[in-house]
Amino acid sequence: MNSTIKMVVFDMAGTVVDEDNVVYKTLQKAINEAGYNFTLDEVLAQGAGKEKLQAIKSILNVYAENDDEELANSIFANFMIQLKDAYAVLNVLPQNNATELFAALKERKILTVFNTGYNRVIAQSLVDKLGWKKGVEFDDLVTATDVPKNRPNPDMILFAMQQFGITNGNEVVKVGDSIIDIEEGKNAGCVYSIGITTGAHTFEQLQSAKPDYIIDNLLDLLPVLDDHMSK
Q1: Most buried one in 37, 134, 150, 213, CB count within 10 A?
Q2: How far from 146 is each of 20, 58, 105, 180, CA to CA, in Å?
């Protein structure tokens, strides 16, 4: 008999939120203003899903063999200023079928939790722009600044589990649009770590992390959950 699924942890941007990759486009701009010429695909490949200072360090290290801490901090400071301006005018939309999925999970008495490589201020601004409210569309939000270690470490998922007294990863599913989301779910012992093709990484990139499933639409999650719960 399989365990009951009590919680689904969703990444935000690219998974349940459509913000047109504005964060990674802004990240690309801030890094390239420091004298580089990285493509958006390169930025996404190395930076997607990570806490954003760590994303900058990874991009510089992999593509430029540069591990200058001071440079990374300078780029990050520039990025945060530009991102605030970008978000002021950004039109944020829910990913297709997001709110329908949240309602379906509520019917099944499954918790909906968001987690993200963004800090608390950015993540909350996304939620606020969408008009989503804790206790209505979702049950909790965990951000990169709420825990000691960020993805692929499992801290954010484990923190979310603690909030609701869940002690077994077999009762939790992780869904995200990047390789690091899948790694995070595996490291947290989630019963399923699921990739979705609506965001940062392609099917092939997601496949390289060996997820349990790859879906193309949020509603594709429901048959996976229902099949598990019926066994």
Answers
A1: 150
A2: 25, 21, 25, 18
Query: Can you name the residues that pair with 176 across neighbouring β-strands?
Result: 195
pTM of the model: 0.88
Same domain for 198 and 155?
yes
Instruction: Give all strands of the β-sheet with 213-215 in edge-to-edge order.
Output: 140-143, 111-116, 7-11, 172-176, 192-196, 213-215
Can you tell me the mean pLDDT for 214-229? 96
- Cα separation, 37 vs 157, in Å, equals 35
- CA 13/CA 119 separation, integer angstroms: 13
226 contact partners, CB below 8 Å, separation of at least 6 = none
For the chain, how many residues are written?
A: 231
DSSP-based three-state secondary structure for 134: strand
Q: Tens of pLDDT along 176-200?
A: 999 999 999 999 999 999 999 999 8
More confident residue, 187 or 90: 187
For residue 145, give the CATH number of its domain. 3.40.50.1000
The Cα 25–Cα 30 span in angstroms is 9
Q: Choose the final residue of a domain: 89, 106, 134.
A: 89
